[in-house]
Write a structure and sequence with these properties.
Blueprint (H helix, E strand, L loop, with lengths): L12 E4 L13 H8 L7 H7 L2 H20 L7 H10 L4 E4 L4 H8 L12 E3 L12 H10 L6 E5 L2 H10 L2 E5 L14 E3 L2 H32 L1
Parallel strand pairs: 1-2, 1-4, 2-3, 4-5, 5-6
Helix pairs in contact: 3-5, 4-8
């Protein structure tokens, strides 16, 4: 788990991909979705759907929604998820979700994890938000703004190329969760590579003293502002 590049600044927030990162992978059959909507190989599903005429686009969105909801009903927490969340809580580090999925599917998935609530995340950004989806960096930048920190103070954690590309383009630190037995794509150029979320804790630990200092500075700043009013 050595860093693949020079370490980034102090971590102030963690932004997770959802499917395959917060939840276990493999429940959504992307090949079946592609066949069902006629998406060419090598083309993003969402880009393909957006390119369709209105009637075809609506039909394709319904197909994708059906597959996603079926997958959401089977969702299970990823190994190490609750330990990682408890660790972040103990250090006062906020977390968020950035996903190409819908909010409805995310909510349904979370229902399968009794110890987790959507409110446990400081921000949740889905494809329904008015932000360009991954691999565009907009979602990472928007999440950083909601956290109230610069993007280079965020660590983006995900299991696919788009997650890492979005994080890198936003200037964030990136962690690739390499959890597939048979990965069909090359490993992205992330700052760190881990097998599961448990391994994420050891990566985050050296940064968290700095995160605590940053939180204390924010509190002092808020206090000064109130005294000045």
């Amino acid at each position: 788990m050595e860093p693949m590049k020079h370490a980034k600044p102090v971590i102030a927030a963690v932004l997770f991909d959802f499917d395959g990162t917060v939840t276990t992978s493999g429940h959504l059959d992307f090949a079946a979705v592609r066949r069902a909507i006629g998406c060419p190989a090598g083309t993003s599903l969402l880009q393909h759907i957006d390119s369709l005429p209105p009637d075809e686009k609506t039909a394709a969105e319904c197909v994708l929604d059906r597959f996603e909801m079926e997958a959401a009903e089977k969702a299970q927490p990823a190994p190490g998820l609750m330990e990682t969340i408890a660790y972040l809580d103990s250090h006062g580090v906020p977390r968020g979700i950035l996903t190409r999925n819908t909010l409805k599917a995310v909510k349904r998935s979370v229902q399968n994890i009794p110890s987790l609530a959507l409110e446990d995340f400081a921000c949740v950004i889905t494809r329904e938000d008015e932000v360009a989806v991954k691999p565009e960096p907009d979602g990472v930048i928007e999440a950083a703004a909601r956290f109230g920190v610069a993007a280079d103070r965020v660590v983006v954690v995900g299991d696919y190329l788009y997650d890492i590309e979005a994080g890198r383009r936003a200037g964030a630190m990136t962690v690739f969760v390499d959890n597939l037995a048979h990965r069909s794509f090359p490993a992205p150029d992330a700052d760190y590579v881990v097998a599961d979320l448990r391994s994420l804790i050891s990566i985050l630990h050296p940064y968290l003293d700095g995160a605590r200092r940053l939180g204390a500075e924010r509190q002092r700043g808020c206090g000064a502002s109130r005294r000045g009013t």
